[in-house]
Amino acid sequence: MKKIPLFLACLLMVQFSFAQYDSTKVYKKRVLESAEIDFMFSYYSQDGNNAAVSGGTGTEELTDAVPTIVIAVPLNEDDVFTIDAAVSAYTSASSSNVNPFDGTVAADPFQATSGASGADTWVNVNVGYSHSSDDRNKVWSAKASIASEYDYFSAGIGGTYTRLFNKKNTELTANANVFIDSWTTIYPSELRPFSDNRNSQGVTALYNKNIAGARYSPTFETFTNKGRNSYSVGLNFIQILSKRMQGALLVDLVYQQGLLSTPFQRVYFSDVDSSFIENFRLADDIERLPNSRFKTALGGRLNYYVNEHIVLKTYYRFYNDDWGVSSHTASIDVPIKIGGGFTLYPGFRYYNQSAATYFAPYAQHLSVSEFYTSDFDLSKYNATQYSFGLSYTDVFTKKHIWKFGLKSIDLKYSYYERNTGLQASLISFGVKFVLDKKVQDLLENSSD
Amino acid sequence: MKKAIILLGVIITCLSSCTVVKGYERVNLNDPDMELSSRKIDRFETNFQGYREAASGANGGKTGGGCGCN
C-alpha cells in the first residue's frame, strides 16, 4: 500500500509542473474529470504447423502474457497526460528453432528445443499529451513510444489533430506517425558459419555433426541494412447520421523501408538438394523481401442503437499493398445490456487475404528468385474469430480500494482460426479505477 | 485506388450534409457502447491480428513498436 501514496505524489508533481495560475479562470467542463488507471492483462496462445522459422513447416506453438497499465491524468480542464506501459513475456516453440541443435532432444521442426532462444520479453512504453480548445472543437495530441526486445528496438513519435464542426455532428481527425526501428540480426544457427565472414571453426563444428543427405555448403549473405522505418498518415471522418446511428470512415497510408525481412526465418529451395541434422532440414537461405512496402487501408464503422439493451457495431476494411496482398475484414459486435451494470459482448470477425507475390510454401521456391518467403502470415488464407466478453460498469464508482473508485471490469475470450490450420486463443482482462473526486480536487488546489 | 478515394470524398460530402442532431438529442449516441473507437480491452486483439495478418491500419492502429516476428 506504500506504493499508492507514492503514486499520488507523482500525480501531484505532474500537476505542479503543468499548472498555470490564472486569476480570470472561468468554469469549463473538464475533458477528463479525474485521474484514471487501467490495469489490464492478456494471455495469448496459438498453435499450427507452418512455422516461418523452419521454412513453412513445423510447430507454431507460442504463448504470450502481457500485463499492461494505462494512467490518464488531467493536468487542468483542457489537458490530459497519459502513460501506457506493457511488458510481454512470450515463449515460442518456433523461435526456439532458430537454433534447433542446442537442446537435449533430437532437432525437429515440430518439436521445441530447450535452448535459450525460445523465450523473450518485449517492453513497450507510450507517453501522450492532448490539449482541447475552450469550445472543445479542436483537439491536439502528441505521443512518443519506445519498444524493446532482444533482437528489435523501436522508437516512435506521432501526432493527431481533430476538428469538430457542424454543431459537433461531424469530426475530422488527421494523424501522422513515424517509427524508427532497428534489428539485432539473428540468423538460423546452421547458416552462421557460412556468412560473409566465413568462420572455419564454426563450419568444422557443424560438419562434426552427423549431416545426412547432400553436402551442406550454402551461399549465405547477411543483411547490411539493419534499420526499418515506418511512416504513416491517416484520416478519420466521423459523422452522426441520426439520433440512433453514427459512422466513421478511416483511411491509413503506410510506407515502410529498410529491413522488412525477418532474419531468422528459413527458406528451402526445390532446386537444391536437402541436408539434415537429425530430423531438421538445414536452411538453404533466409527470407528475402523487398526493402520497401506501401500499404493502403480503407475502413468504415457503423454503429446503431437498437434499444436500451442492444447496440449493433459493424466494421469493414479493405487493404491493399504493393507486395500483392489485398484483404477484406468484416466484423460485427452486439453489446447486450443485461442489467445491474453488466453487458455481454458477443462478436464475430471474418478476414481473408491474398498471398504476397513472394510467398510459396515449404520447399517450393527456386534459388534463382530475388525475393522469397515461406511465412504463412503472407500466404493466401481466410480466418474467422468468435469472441465473447462480459463487462461490469459502475458509473457512480461506489466500490473503493483506498482512494480509488472501481469504474469497470472487463473480461473477454476470443478464438481465432485460419483455414491453414493455425488456431489461437486470447483471454483479456481489464479493471479501471478512478481517483476520488475529493482527492483530485485536493491535488488541483495544491497545484494552484 | 483513385476511384476509391473519389468515392470516399463523395460519401464524406453526402454524410456531412445529414440532419443535424442537437446535443440534447444525443442520449442514445452518448451510450459508451456507441463509441466508434475500439474498447481498451480490444487492444490485445488488434495487436495479435496485426502480427498474424498481412493487413493492418484503418482500425485504430498499433499501440507500440515491435517486429511481430514470432
Briefly say what this structure is.
The complex is a heterodimer of chains A (448) and B (70). By secondary structure, chain A is mostly beta strands. Chain A contains 4 helices and 23 strands.
Largest interface: A-B, 105 and 50 residues
- Report the sheet-strand fraction of chain B: under 5%
* Helicity of chain B, as a percent range: 25-40%
Order of helices and strands of chain A: HEEEHEEEEHEEEEEEEEEEEEEEEEH
The computed structural class of chain A is: mainly beta
Mean pLDDT of chain B: 78
Radius of gyration of CA atoms of chain B, rounded to a whole number:
17 Å
Number of helices of chain A: 4
Number of helices of chain B: 2
| Unreliable sequence segments of chain B | none
Tally of extended strands of chain B?
0
Number of strands of chain A: 23
- Portion in beta strands of chain A: over 45%
What does this structure look like?
The complex is a heterodimer of chains A (448) and B (70). By secondary structure, chain A is mainly β. Chain A has one domain (6-446): monomeric porin ompg (Porin, Beta Barrel). In chain A, 9% of the residues lie in helices and 50% in strands. Chain A is built from four helices and 23 strands. Chain A has helices spanning 3-18, 93-96, 200-207, 437-447; strands at residues 36-47, 62-74, 79-92, 119-132, 138-149, 152-165, 170-183, 211-213, 227-240, 245-258, 266-267, 275-277, 280-281, 285-286, 292-305, 311-321, 326-333, 336-339, 342-353, 381-393, 400-401, 404-418, 423-435. In chain A, the strands form three sheets. In chain A, strands 1-2-3-4-5-6-7-9-10-15-16-17-19-20-22-23 form a 16-stranded antiparallel barrel. Chain A has a three-stranded antiparallel beta sheet with strand order 8-12-13, with no helix packed on it. In chain A, helix 1 packs across helix 4. Chain A is elongated, with a radius of gyration of 26 Å. The mean pLDDT of chain A is 90. Chain B has 70 residues and is mostly helical. Chain B has two helices and no strands. Chain B has helices at residues 2-16, 43-52. Chain B is flat, with a radius of gyration of 17 Å. At the A-B interface, strand 1, strand 2, strand 3, strand 4 and strand 5 of A face helix 1 and helix 2 of B.
